[in-house]
From TrEMBL:
This is Isoleucine--tRNA ligase. Binds 1 zinc ion per subunit. A motif ('KMSKS' region) lies at residues 623-627. Residues 916-944 form the Zinc finger FPG/IleRS-type domain. One of its GO terms (cellular component) is cytosol.
Amino acid sequence: MAKDYKATVFLPQTDFPMRAGLPAMEPKLLARWAENDLFARLRQTAAGREKFILHDGPPYANGNLHIGHALNKILKDVINRSQQMLGRDANYVPGWDCHGLPIEWKIEEKYRAAGRDKDAVPIDEFRRECREFADHWIGVQKAEFRRLGVEGDWDRPYTTMAYPAEAQIVREIGRFLMNGGLFRGSKPVMWSVVEKTALAEAEVEYHDHTSNTVYLRFPVATASRPELDGVSMVIWTTTPWTMPGNRAIAYGADIPYVVVEVTEAAEGSLARVGERMLLAEALVPAVAAATGIAGHRVAASLSGVDLAGTVCRHPLAGHPGADGGYDFPVALLAGDFVTTDQGTGLVHMAPGHGADDYELALAHGITAPQTVSEDGSYFPHVPLFAGRRVLTPYGKKGDADEAVIAVMTEVGALLGRGTLLHSYPHSWRSKAPLIFRNTPQWFISMTTNGLRDTALAAIDDTRFVPPQGQNRLRSMIETRPDWCISRQRAWGVPIAIFVEKKTGELLRDQDVVDRIAAAFESEGADAWYTSPPERFLGPGRDPADYEQVKDVVDVWFDSGSTHSFVLEQRPELAWPASLYLEGSDQHRGWFHSSLLESCGTRGRAPYDAVLTHGFVMDEQGRKMSKSLGNVTAPQTVIDEYGADILRLWVVSADYSEDLRIGKEILKHQSEMYRRLRNTLRYLLGALDGFDPAEKVAAADMPELERWVLHRLAETDRTVRQACADFEFHAIFTALHNFCAVDLSAFYFDIRKDALYCDAPDALRRRACRTVMDQIFDCLTAWLAPILCFTAEEAWLARHGDAPETSVHLRLFPDIPASWLDEALAAKWQTVREVRRVVTGALELERAQRRIGASLQASPVVAVTPAQAAAFAGLSLAEIAITSSAALTVVEGEALENAFRLDDVPGVAVVPRLADGQKCQRCWRILPEVGQVARHEDLCVRCAEAVPGLTSEAA
């Protein structure tokens, strides 16, 4: 009877399951980390190390997390965990943005549904409901963030609505008050008629919108040159409703202009034969086509500079119903923003309704009029149009455009009209169109105290990842107007200052600022609304002499101030932050406001580095929307796949670009995850019963093991550099290739025979297990920041579940420099290339059913002398996983009928069947089988191994 040697063969054993079951396993690990207070242990083990502080950009507390939140927080967590394992103290304090319109809007929606008037609700009651709403969603989001595996100080997060935070925000406003940077001005700002407040650029999104367009005549009143007598300046605008606010016309100093005399007008055209008008020369054909000018002649040619000094009349000047309201001069002014891309080359200037208009008018001493009220209607003092609406309270188009066009037609000013579909600003909450509206607001000056220059210098001193973020932020700071920080809302930190009614001067008194901050510290910002003003003004001042400002500060000022009440006031953190990390839209948002706030009060940026990531699209690269049905919710992914799959998705792509996600992509991520998990599982099984006494010194190991150590050293270098560069897709690529290509498809494949069949004390087997021990230690550490659950599961499977045991309490292993061996790596590159040709030849034999397993083969392999030298001291049969192999040096193409690969020149393989009998233990086919006394069915190696194994069976 043949002997059964199965019990003498070492087969990997582990309880680490092949199927991860992440949705069920991950919550158990979360509970374990909470029970053992992993965060506190991390702080204890990192005490005294260099700090790495990633300051959290606060999300709004107003709904469940979306996939963009998951990308953002996972990326932050991967960075924090990797920096911690690099030997730093990466203390992470999460935070929330709690004030502002997103939350206030939700409460107003509830009121509207109940038929309540928000303005009739006492402000302290309204603010209390906003606070409760935010507090609820903080709890929901906190649980969802933790489910993603994000580690942080969740028991002590920061919120902008905490009383100490509100107190510090008002102190920061006080800094600008005291240094002269804060002022009240009347400027055009983006205004939401629906929400009745100014909006910051970061709160604006752009959608297609159809606007009315008009060509209008402005008759010349004072000509700078004789050619302009009796001429009309023709402007084109997409906002006819701004015409009551017109105060000037802009031209381009370097643009060629012509005086055109109409010689023929098409039927229905409003052009008049014989009239003369000024247009940019390049735009005459387009204007003629749009206005029905069928024929014309050029009466004069001028350059832009020739227009200086020309003054026009407003088209409505002298209108009997206007009572002289438009009888003011309309000067022509040079503007460097005028182009010939569209229009007429002349731009009508309404300084109350545009940034360029305002700045040009201001430079020439022209006051910006106030024409449109907060509800989108013209003020009562606007001649001819009082009460007409630009937009309705619901954001729909009002009657102002048509009213203006009708009067312009009546007075003969209209030359042509049309419509234009173009990108137009909308509120990102109400989705309604916005208007530029001149209104009194509070601003922080970009020039007072040199804020712009300080911010630009700070940008130059900041590291940007990717680098192009620097130019993007710089260009915004270079051109941005003064910072409008006021909002006409109720839920927020008030701009808690007083203005002297008699002089209009701001009350600059540090004692007043301190009293306000002290009240906010103990009672919150509600104190501003519930306390008498004398509480803050102090003795000696009559409250009747002062205006108490009730506007709230823009939430971007709130979040831009977080560095002052988080980084500066928590001793376990540090100022400035090592890193700010958010989506690329935050160049105009949090990165921007934080920079200005800190530069204006501390003279530098609150961060040393800024990292930006892209947005999440669906698998086709489309923006996600409920209407398209292409939304991927993180909660759904976690329930089906587990959080580690989401984490793997984050690091597997280049996050500096937009990322894509969907069912097929997630399936692909699951496959890649399975390869990584199977590697860990195989290592755990192969290390079953491993005793440190087995270890072999690197110098005593076979070449193959020393090559693996070299690859570990190379990978360690890649991991550390990628962590420093925040390029985690490079880590993923390196680890995935190491596991799939170097280990599973090569090293494990070759060493299975030695691992399973060598004697336990054999050097080759001991060296293999020693290397596997090192691989496991390295892989679990390198994967821990990415697959935080799986790495922990694998670590506990090997080291037990004592409370003090966690892979996350480790550092990345220190790899001896001696493991790097470039010469050995080059040699084994050649070995692997030769092996690839042999494997290809055997695969073809297997496909043709001439062999089953590779151990049935004994190939003849022809190589070049250099390739043969690489195999000195090595067994080709062992490396190719054949029973035997013959390596021969053959020049040129002498070996006939051989298998070759074009990309591996010099190698030719002739597959042959192995001679001999099959060893019943290792399954190699060798002539020696049958020749070993007492073990006729074994090869020599197995015969020597079996007596030392007590489990030998008959």
